[in-house]
């Protein structure tokens, strides 16, 4: 093989290897695969302690470096200080409901934002109500036992399975710094592969 061709082959191999390495680095740094460990986000996402039967998703860890979280976003986040006190260590996945500066309260089984009911029929199953009964194991009064104003750079998150979700109703808000990323794609099971719905929500 002529030297010039051999050099081209070598340089091409190095370039391809470098691009593959860069792709892997970008994937690890900005994208993450996770599985849903509980049923707190049913029916939107199927979760179970058996990861082989649970939905598996891709999390975009770059999104919130350039854009603000929005109501309706399904997010993965690390445990807050309150959750750490309760010995939680693993990440949670919930839907953003309340934004910074908004007044949130529960009334007649519904979420009210700035005194207006939030329409949630496009992702909550019939019969689901948003009450604080799920917070009975709390050592103190649930966060939404009374109206609350969301602090700056913080978000109220709730599970779609309101009757079986330990969420912000009980323990409070999630600081932006705790957000790991936005759930964007479900890649397992293959029968449900595709983008994870984010429906616009308005109070």
What do you see in this structure?
- With 203 residues, the protein is of the alpha+beta class.
- It has one domain: Umud Fragment, subunit A (Ribbon).
- It has 3 helices and 12 strands, in the order H-E-E-E-H-E-E-E-E-E-E-H-E-E-E.
- It is globular and about 80 Å long.
Keywords:
single chain, 203 residues, alpha+beta, Umud Fragment, subunit A, eight-stranded antiparallel beta sheet, 3 helices, 18% helix, globular
Structural class: alpha+beta
Report the count of strand segments: 12
Indicate the CATH class: Mainly Beta
The radius of gyration is 21 Å
Strand and helix order: HEEEHEEEEEEHEEE
Outline the biggest β-sheet.
8 strands, antiparallel
Termini separation: 70 Å
Number of domains: 1
Task: Report the uncertain regions.
Answer: 5-25
- Average per-residue pLDDT, rounded, comes to 85
User: What percent of residues are in strands?
Assistant: 25-35%
Named at the architecture level, the CATH assignment is: Ribbon
Query: What's the overall geometry?
Result: globular
Query: How helical, in percent, are the residues?
Result: 10-25%
CATH-defined topology:
Umud Fragment, subunit A
Number of helices: 3
| Relevant CATH superfamily | Umud Fragment, subunit A
